[in-house]
Amino acid sequence: MLSHPEQYERLRLACPEAAPTAVLAGDPCFDRILAARPLRERFRRALGVRPGQRLVLLNSTWNSESLFGDGGDAVAALLDRVAAEFPVDEYRFAAVLHPNIWHGHGPGQVRSWLDRARRSGLSLIDPLNGWRQALLAADAVIGDHGSVTFYAAALGTPVLLGAAPLDSLDPDAPISTFMREAPKLDPGTSLVSQIEGLLAGHRPLTGPAEFTTSVPGESATRLRRLFYSMMGAPEPDRPASLKPLPLPDHEPGTVTVPLHVRTWVLGPGEVAVRRRADPRPAADPGRGGELHIALHEDTRDVDHLDLADVVFRDGTPDDPRFGSPAVWTAEVLRRHRNCSVAAYVTGPSACVVRVRGEEPLLLSAAPGGDAADAPGADPAAYASALYAWLASYVPDAPVPAERLARVTDAGLRVRTGDRLHRVRIAPLTPPAPQDR
Q: Most CB atoms closer than 10 Å: which of 59, 124, 209, 214?
């Protein structure tokens, strides 16, 4: 069964005996991907991609010449660079690894190699059932000579090749042409600048879309006709169809390593925030600004909790394990004496924050930001912005309590990358009305 007529001549040369049995059947895998294109935004939300974030998919086939290679140090070095260079509020990363990588090395070894990256927000995608959805959700792919990377290019997604072993490919196959023409990853150059350049200057190559299948959308009809003819049975009178791609489970990509947060107070009630999961704060290329540490309570770096300026967690408001967001924030500030702000993220656009010495506040996305009706930035970024505003010097509001009162009345404007988020700040429990 062939997906394109060009494969027939290569089959005839490689195995003449098989050529008479060849059937042009299309590509059911790619047809399922094409049919699910309208669901792209749902797939992105399932992967925890927020408005304004870019999802970069790392894809590797198996063998020593692939992007993953033999695993270990090479993979860790690449992912360390990802953590060092990409702000977590602007980029989201996921990885699709060939099933043979999982079976060859074992799931425990793979997860061990990728442990730091996973705690830095990398999502490992199910290699059998979730990779098509992740491919549709991606803004860019760093890949190799495997079929998933070729499918990405066929969809028109920008691709950067981290491995391109031409010697192991049929020189006449479309994949070889693609390997020669697609842009290559330069290990000696900034990854973030390469991704930004790839996205800005992307021009889809025609080969992958042309040669993936010559009969898009027809595989179900063609395959069913073939199978029933081989059985000598009449086809059903209903149209042939393929099973739609299911919606994946929600994968938020929670970051539990220490976040090194650089902030800039841009004006009254306006703060720019850049958060990185880089273990080396000195490597932050940001210029100026102030630096603080924010850390998820579920971190394995428990010794850093007493050093963090902002401690946060996520959960439902009524989770009995934490009492309530107000109870949890008070407990955190009692337990960690150097912590100034505790934030309990209650949903995609809100969190309960307690500043040391103050009553709890509700921070929530407000209309007027760049995200329109969709959730804005990670609410934990709002907490870091509030911390930075309170720690800054404002001439006409020199006391932190005065600065807090100002943004409680007017709200906060938070910038992550090139996006503006408006944040409403209100007492968690409104004051009781005065008797008249």
A: 59
